[in-house]
Task: structure prediction
Amino acid sequence: MSIAENVAVIKQKISQAAIAAGRNPEEILLCAATKMNSTENVRLAIQAGVDCCGENRVQELTQKLSENAYTGVPIHFIGHLQTNKVRQVVGKVGLIQSVDSLRLLEAIQLEAAKQNITQNILLEVNIGNEESKSGFSPQEIDTICQKMTHYPNLRLKGLMAIPPISHFSGENRKFFQEMLQLSVDITAKKYDNVCVDILSMGMSDDYLDAIACGSTMIRVGTAIFGPRNYR
Result:
């Protein structure tokens, strides 16, 4: 199937899953995870109607920006971001989804202040408490939200998570439900400089479960572009 056909199928499934969960399909954004895809493929995905593009690697982001690959939609950074590459991302993307440490949070604040801009961010939650993954533990999120007043050049827009690899359908629902409850708890506390209106969770294999559990943004790569060639 073509990229356009894949996007059409995904959007239909998004709509069906949202309606089944009693939700408005328009609440859910489709972020095309464009890692290892050409500028041509990115443009095809945009033409097909994805809501935004998410890039994992700074080098790819820089290259594709120079080629105007993302024209027409917002661009997000969704991969692990090293502090020494922050200046290449801040101000270049509408949203940094993968803020996974206090050190990175502070580095983004410093660069945003230098540029005199406000950078939108999400906090990445290590919802499965996996040693192999970065991100804040669920228990740390409340403390970080309390500290957001110290980062005037940042705007916390919500949370992002990559649950453990699932081996069967529905396995990750418990993690998605925990993320939803975390976002509800934060919203109820009404912290300054915190507005949790984005819950970014769900990828090619589990986005339907994520939608059923409250996701407002799914990050889909393989289901749009096909398997990546890592060789």
About this structure: DSSP finds eight helices and eight strands in the chain. The beta strands are 29-33, 52-55, 75-77, 95-99, 119-125, 154-161, 194-200, 217-220.
